[in-house]
Design a protein that fits this description.
The protein has eight helices and 20 strands. The model has no long low-confidence stretch (mean pLDDT about 95).
């Protein structure tokens, strides 16, 4: 087993008494006080996450724009500098290599790919394999960057007041490079919580300094990955390995809007175009239980005693007080209001198919 990595903020988490646990090859904070308190801090005020475990891969060179468009489901052609797009990298059969953010760093051929922590090595190797024949330079800069996410309705005020950072002009899925105390920081209006907020990328030293300032002067609540999962789940945001995988395509997951099949070409286009046209055998749905029982990942979904699917993520939601889950089910049972059962240990609990978003997102457009 590979040794677990530590982010630049690891010692700060330990000093704060965080409950630490392995995630994506890193030792990460799961919670500091409680998942409920941290979740509510983000929904009602502001919380701060260590997301330094995420990967940063830069693509530059004469063919960089064409190449990134070749490996990415969304369409980056004509996207201006300072813009971010969400999408996926696919295998030829439509399965997902990873879902990621693509940043256009400038008007030249300079792109940043932000990938999931557990997939950094896999993604880098896959990108390098696809790059044959293209004039590109690929730099896995993950070890050179730390990253924090400041999330919640007070995020803009705190970033402006405590960090002295001019970020009010940023709208959702835009970014800029800021000179902060003589250091370069990538500041983006993004996050994974369904709330307004920012993600800051910089050197380890700068990120540690920003963390201390936000914690000590801004009285920002430190948050672990436990509430990051409850927050993203309520907002209907997918997690790779649960709602997307090499076996769950973006079409099955209901993310077809990020798959531009009108593009000339991209890896996996034929497979997902066929899925869009013909439908898929499985679909990702939301299910709400009529009981307080909690449907967890891996639990079986049934209809008339027959297995029709499996839960990918489930919680009793903190904000909206509902027992709900995301589940991959046979397409015949994916229509809204379809009655199903979820097997929890030896009992089944009645449920109904609902929309996958359990909480309305609050972004600054």
């Amino acid at each position: 087993m590979d040794e677990l990595q530590k982010t630049c903020l690891y010692d700060k988490h330990v000093a704060l008494g965080a409950k630490m646990s392995p995630f994506g090859g890193f030792m990460m904070p799961i919670e500091y006080s409680s998942i409920i308190d941290e979740h509510n801090a983000v929904r009602e005020n502001v919380g701060m996450f260590d997301v330094s475990h995420m990967g940063e891969i830069f693509v530059t060179g004469k063919d960089a724009t064409v190449f990134v468009n070749h490996i990415f489901t969304n369409d980056i052609i004509g996207v201006p500098a300072g813009k971010i797009l969400y999408g996926m990298m696919l295998y030829s059969d439509g399965g997902v290599v990873d879902d990621l953010l693509v940043y256009r760093m400038d008007d030249a051929d300079h792109w940043l790919l932000v990938v999931n922590a557990a997939n950094i090595a896999k993604d880098y190797d896959w990108i390098m394999q696809q790059a044959k024949g293209y004039e590109v330079d690929i730099d896995n800069a993950s070890s050179r960057y730390g990253q924090i996410a400041l999330q919640g309705p007070s995020a803009e005020m705190i970033a402006t007041k405590v960090l002295g950072m001019a970020v009010a002009d940023l709208t959702f899925y835009t970014f800029k490079i800021v000179d902060w105390q003589g250091n370069e920081v990538i500041a983006s209006r993004t996050g994974y919580t369904g709330e307004d907020g920012f993600e800051f990328y910089a050197s380890s030293e700068v990120i540690c300094h920003m963390w201390d300032m936000l914690l000590n002067e801004g009285h920002v609540t430190p948050c672990g990955l436990g509430c990051r999962d409850t927050l993203r789940f309520e907002s209907g945001l997918p997690l790779y390995g649960h709602e997307l995988s090499n076996e769950i395509s973006p079409i099955m997951a209901g993310l077809g809007m990020f798959v531009k099949i009108d593009k000339a070409e991209f890896i996996g286009k034929e497979a997902v175009a066929r899925q869009k046209a013909e439908g898929t055998a499985k679909k990702l749905v939301g299910i709400e239980l009529m009981d307080k029982a909690i449907p967890r990942a891996g639990y079986v979904v049934e209809h008339d005693g027959n297995e029709i699917g499996i839960v990918t993520t489930g919680y009793h939601t903190i904000t909206t007080d509902r027992s709900v889950c995301l589940a991959l089910v046979d397409s015949a049972y994916a229509a809204l209001d379809t009655e199903v059962d979820v097997r929890i240990r030896k009992k089944t609990f009645k449920g109904i198919v609902v929309k996958k978003r359990f909480y309305d997102k609050k972004y600054k457009k």
